[in-house]
């Protein structure tokens, strides 16, 4: 009996141990802490390095990175490199929304670029998993890197002779490199994205000198995947321009009427939420105006970077027999009861004719915005190509919708008084990559001929003779 009792006890203990180990095994296999996926190492496609700045790699793992080492070998001797954390934006070759990932900036090795043409980077990564007896999953990655110290070839082919403060200009240039990565144009404060032009290696772009930028210094930047950068100045004759300044006295009837009605129409806040009449006006003139400008700029900058073979644009004339009610660039100072309370810049041209006058599209284009937009009321934005858009605001109604292709001469809507408007009129504007520009230029066929048409023709002639 005693032997049988001991035998039964051993079986029970054995069964408990089996259940314990099976449960423990199932726990380990199902637990995230014991995941078995190796860390992932990523870098740019066909990586290259000029050995002047940092080289970036991206590491990702389900449980996170515990340790990493980066090295290279020369003459069978391993040399370790410092790897420091960098902003995820530096690893532009990966999805910025990925979790558990880190971007590393690898310091340049202490070697001469004359000595080598390529470098094999050795990346060793361990994750935080408790797999492999708590030592984690490991990845060993060899990354062959081309050593490239040659800068991209960059040269201006043709450009507009002058640019006026608040206005526009055109540039066509050549940029070539086997590993060309990014091209951008700067006016000193804002950036513009060029588009491929005519033949391989050539690019074209309109650019603007926004009215509120005090200076203008145009340069083209071309960089390759190795980090080499070429810079070319665009020699525009820059002309400063003074714009009209107006002081406007605010009345209680204006704030209680049009401004308050617009607050209620927008519907974000109640009139009771404002402390006084000035705060009501500032909300519309500053907060809603800023929202409207950003909304329209977003619509006008979301355009395809397609190849431009040619570009034909006609002088804009959206309203027949119209009188100018307010000009572009007017700097407005608002005064209430003798005190300055707010400012604004009128960045369009106000035109008035008969009530609900038909609005004409002077150029073919695509409707990219058809919406009620804050102070602009019912608004249309048409995209005409080469980063150029036109805006039509305060409409009673539009006759087109987003995505519609509009032909030259088509009626697209009717004037009105929606938004921040005191009477039936059209607020018309022209935008270059989202920046509102001096409209008079784009309503002048001679200006268009000298600054757009002839520049393109000259560039094509130069390119064809090369």
UniProtKB/TrEMBL annotation:
Q: Which InterPro entries match?
A: Cell_wall_metabolism_enzyme, Dup_hybrid_motif, M23ase_b-sheet_dom
Note whether Chloroplast occurs among the keywords.
no
Bilayer-crossing residues are: 12-29
This protein's record includes keyword Lipid metabolism: no
Recorded GO MF terms: metalloendopeptidase activity
Q: Where is the M23ase beta-sheet core domain?
A: 345-437
Q: Which domain of life is it from?
A: Bacteria
- Alphabetized Pfam families for the sequence: Peptidase_M23 (PF01551)
Keyword tags: Membrane, Signal, Transmembrane, Transmembrane helix
Q: What is this protein called?
A: Peptidase
Q: Which organism is it from?
A: Helicobacter apodemus
Q: What is the lineage of its organism?
A: Bacteria, Pseudomonadati, Campylobacterota, Epsilonproteobacteria, Campylobacterales
